Every structure is written in structure tokens, then in C-alpha cells.
Amino acid sequence: MGICLGSPAKSDHPVSGQGFGNVASFWVSCLKKIFLTVEFLEIGTKVAPGNVKHGSNPPNLQTNSVALSDALVGFPGDLSVSGNLKSFTFNDLRNATKNFSPDSLIGEGGFGYVFKGWINENTLASSKPGTGTVVAVKRLKAQSFQGHREWLTEVKYLGQLRHENLVKLIGYCSEAKNRLLVYEFMPKGSLENHLFKKGVQPMAWSTRMQIAVDIARGLSFLHSLNANIIYRDLKASNILIDSKFHAKLSDFGLARKGPSGDGTHVSTRVVGTMGYTAPEYVASGHLTPKSDVYSFGVVLLELLSGRRAMGDETLGGAEGTLVDWAKQFLGDAGNFQESWTQDNLKLSRTGCKIFVHMDWLLEV
């Protein structure tokens, strides 16, 4: 999860005015350009779920998106009526994770620690470690900055929504002061590890583009709902990869409803992660789905360049951002390719062409 970057805005209600247009159509436009760029540069045919072939049309997200009535599996007023989720006891999850032992620990974030656990596939009861279905169990830190409010937000949204590019929330535990969440297990870990962890095999270009499209599809699903959900924390560490290298969005603690009716934005406290958060949102506190679009562009730059959004030593140190670094190369293939050949991770001719044509991101 991200951090609070400031609080320039006081109101937490939508502001009326002229809408910025159909967000679903916006994402259809983005995806078409991704598909066309990938196909034109002959990266390969396997660029998205469904094996889109050369010459075929990109998926129509407006006609293929899950209907609101199917996507929202109830909107419980409290956790006691959240029949879509399994209510685990603390003892259940303690048994499933070998008493939260260090050898079951698989990650740590602002929310808390993440442990590998096992449950029965049919009953969802805890099972003996090493048997049954593997799950990820996230346990809230007692001193967590996000706290109970973000835990509730995660349960509310992931408890309602179902999409192939959103991590599935299986259940929760709310017992005494214990707050835990149980998710499907994503065996390939985070996109951040695949991009930046030393010793990890670099991903092929077709895989990187497949992941980019998966992320865009997940965001399009969120933005196209009548509820208009804004993710607010899109970054490489929140994108998880399954066994077939398909990507799913995780960590919805900062998500919230977007503007409704004629509202152009929602005024809210500024939260997120430096380097990924849209500068307009940071400056004004005005939140729109386009704030997620900016973050998507940053992640796409990370996929193409192999550099971190912020703090990479090749970007000028702690204050350097990937966006500022990338602007100098847009439209200049020769300059960018020369810069890339000086780095450990080599850019193929195809990747270089994709990068320098990314000015379409600035036009949508």
C-alpha cells in the first residue's frame, strides 16, 4: 500500500462540473493502441489472455466487460452478512500458517506480513501445511499505518468484485484485535521482483506486453463500473503474477469511489506512492480515474526500461523520477538506444521502438 502524501483538499464529496468523458471508452482506446503497437512491431501473438492473433481486433471491453450486476457480489453493510467471503477464526489461520512461522513468511508491506498457508479446497477449513490449496494470509500489523480503515476497504471492494485481473479475496478474520485477509496464492510473486530483483531471469517482451495488457484490463474493469472505482495505488509491487505470467491487481486498501453524476473529480486526502502518483492529484487533491492512468504509464515505462519509478541510481539518485528521465527520449530512437546499450539490461530493437512511440500515452 502507499503512503499519505499530504492533504491539500478538505471536502470528501464529488465536485460538480463537466465530465471528462466515458472512462471505459478511454481504456478501450489505450488497449487498442497497445495491441496495435505490439502487433505492428511483431513482438508475437501471445500478448494477452485469449492469444490475440495478428490482424485480429483487440477485445471490446465495453461489450465484454462483466455487467455491474454480475461484478458486484453484494454490498454488505457489515462483515456479518458478507456471504461471498469465508469468515475464518484466528485459530484457523494460525493452524494454516504453522503458527505464522518465519519459514511461512513470503512478504511484508505497509499493511503487515504475508504468510503462505493451506486450506481445504472444498470446505475452506485450515488443513495440514503442505496439503490442500495454497493461500496467502495477510496479517495486519498492530502499529500499521493503514490500519483498520484500509482493511475494511479491502474487504469491501475485493469482497464484491470478481475479475480475472484482480486477485481473489477468499476470506477474512476479524477476531478481537486480529485483522487478517486470505487471498488466492500467486506463485510468481510481484512484478517488482521480476523487474528489479537481482538474479531473476529477465522477462520476454511478449510477456511484458501481456502483463501490461492484463493491468490495463483490470483498471478498465474498475473504471467502467457504475460505481467507478479508482485504485489509487498502482505500482509494480502491487501487481502479482500467476503461474502463467498473467497479472492481477492486489492491495485495495486505498481504493475509493470516483466522481458520480456530473462530477469531474473527488476531493480527498492525497495518498499513494512517490513516483507513481499523478502530479495533478498531488498538487490539488482532485482524484479522477486518470490518476490511475498516470500510474499505469509509469508501470509501463518500468516494463520497457527496467528502471524503477523513483530512486534508481541511473535516474539521478533519490530525487530522480522515471517519467522525467523518459521524456528526453520520446520520439528519439537513436538517443534512447545509445543510452540503453550502456546498461546491464539490453533493450531489443523492438523494445526501443515501442518506447520512443509512447507519446500516445500523452495524447489520450
UniProtKB/TrEMBL annotation:
Keywords: ATP-binding, Cell membrane, Kinase, Membrane, Nucleotide-binding, Serine/threonine-protein kinase, Transferase. It is found in: Cell membrane. It is an enzyme of class 2 (transferase). Its main location: membrane. Coiled coil: none annotated. It catalyses: L-threonyl-[protein] + ATP = O-phospho-L-threonyl-[protein] + ADP + H(+); L-seryl-[protein] + ATP = O-phospho-L-seryl-[protein] + ADP + H(+). It comes from the Eukaryota. Pfam families: PK_Tyr_Ser-Thr. Its EC number is 2.7.11.1. InterPro entries: Kinase-like_dom_sf (IPR011009), Plant_Ser_Thr_Prot_Kinase (IPR050823), Prot_kinase_dom (IPR000719), Protein_kinase_ATP_BS (IPR017441), Ser-Thr/Tyr_kinase_cat_dom (IPR001245), Ser/Thr_kinase_AS (IPR008271). SUPFAM superfamilies: Protein kinase-like (PK-like). The keyword Transferase applies. The keyword Disulfide bond does not apply. Residues 100-364 form the Protein kinase domain. One of its GO terms (molecular function) is ATP binding. One of its GO terms (cellular component) is plasma membrane. PANTHER family: OS01G0588500 PROTEIN-RELATED. Belongs to the protein kinase superfamily. This is non-specific serine/threonine protein kinase. It comes from Sesamum angolense.
